[in-house]
Design goal:
Layout lengths: L3 H29 L5 E8 L11 H7 L3 E7 L4 E7 L13 H18 L3 E7 L3 E8 L2 H13 L9 H11 L5 E6 L14 H4 L6 H17 L1 E8 L11 E5 L6 E5 L3 H24 L3 E6 L5 H17 L1
Parallel strand pairs: 3-4, 3-6, 6-7, 7-10
Antiparallel strand pairs: 1-2, 4-5, 8-9
Helix pairs in contact: 1-3, 1-4, 1-9, 3-4, 5-7
Length: about 325
């Protein structure tokens, strides 16, 4: 029996997602995520402006009148949501945690998919694959996906994107839309310094992402269509001026004291974060992966719409 408060939360996300899909994103989703090819539909009489290369010469010869072949897009797709469930996703400086925002974005994409008669699957990962839900259609299936992202209790706390992508390629044989929802943070080996471990890990890209996981991301994008959705919080980008704080890393348990009242340290931290984001964008761009960053303290509707528009324009002119 699912508790009433959980059902209420899922229902709220469903209502927001469906409204956004119906009012804004449904057409963009269809344009941005194309089918895998074109299927023959029928033969019809030639009309001025039709492509000459589509003329069916056999039918034309029999009827003594030009006929052309008509094709329709092979529309049905599979959308695989690969969601980071590591402990850092529980962080949120406003009302919404990163995991809650990830669930809402996943919901929007999932309802867009089923509205277009596409399938949706889910992979939850930490240091390994935590849960796999095979792709299916339908509202009940999407509600289960949302529930798992929000309320699944992972067995581990760390992050290993590499293992999730390798699992994805084993279980998904046909080309799919792969949406990775993560903060793209993992284990590093920093020296103890003035930054709290929870925040210091965000100074540079993790070794895992920059090396093994990046290579696997590139390989995955060759077989599938990968989209990276980075979920971040404001205070992962800039330190608040709150004086001395004792902070604990959500994934490693490391505890460090930091003086956030020092303006030089806050400025240095912000600059390193900018450099880290630039490096992440460079890596994803070199792998041909479209990416968007969404924040827990900002509305995502406009940003998601702009991302769809930009992606559609690039694909159309690419």
């Amino acid at each position: 029996m699912i508790p009433r408060e959980i059902l209420k939360k899922i229902r709220q996300i469903e209502l927001r997602s469906v409204r956004l899909v119906n009012e804004t994103l449904a057409g963009q989703y269809h344009s941005v995520f194309k089918g895998q090819g074109m299927n023959f539909d029928e033969v019809r009489e030639y009309q001025p402006g039709d492509e000459v290369r589509f003329i069916d010469w056999n039918v034309t010869a029999r009827m003594n009148h030009p006929f052309v072949k008509k094709f329709v897009e092979e529309r049905e797709l599979t959308v695989m949501l690969v969601v980071d469930m590591s402990a850092s996703g529980l962080f949120g400086s406003r009302e919404q945690s990163k995991r809650e925002l990830a669930a809402e974005i996943a919901s929007v994409l999932a309802f867009s998919a089923i509205r277009n008669n596409d399938k949706v699957g889910l992979i939850l990962f930490t240091e390994g694959v935590e849960k796999f839900i095979p792709p299916r259609k339908g509202r009940r299936h999407v509600l289960r996906v949302i529930r798992e992202i929000l309320y699944y209790e992972p067995r581990r706390r760390g992050t290993d994107l590499n293992s999730a992508l390798e699992f994805l390629m084993r279980v998904t044989s046909h080309r799919a839309i792969v949406v990775v929802l993560s903060d793209f943070l993992g284990q590093t080996h920093p020296t103890r310094a003035e930054m709290a471990a929870h925040l210091r890990r965000r100074v540079v890209l993790s070794d895992t992402l920059a090396q093994a996981s990046f290579t696997t991301l590139r390989q995955t994008n060759r077989r599938h269509d990968v989209v990276a959705v980075q979920i971040v919080d404001r205070f992962e980008q800039e330190l608040p001026a709150l004086g001395y704080l004792i902070l604990k890393d959500a994934e490693t348990g490391e505890v460090v004291e930091i003086n956030t009242g020092d303006e030089r340290k806050r400025k240095a931290f912000a600059e390193r974060q900018i450099n880290a984001q630039d490096e992440l964008r460079r890596l994803l761009l070199s792998a041909g992966i479209d990416a968007i960053q969404l924040r827990t303290d900002e509305a995502y509707t406009a940003a998601l719409g702009r991302f769809f528009e930009t992606r559609e324009q690039r694909r159309r002119h690419g």
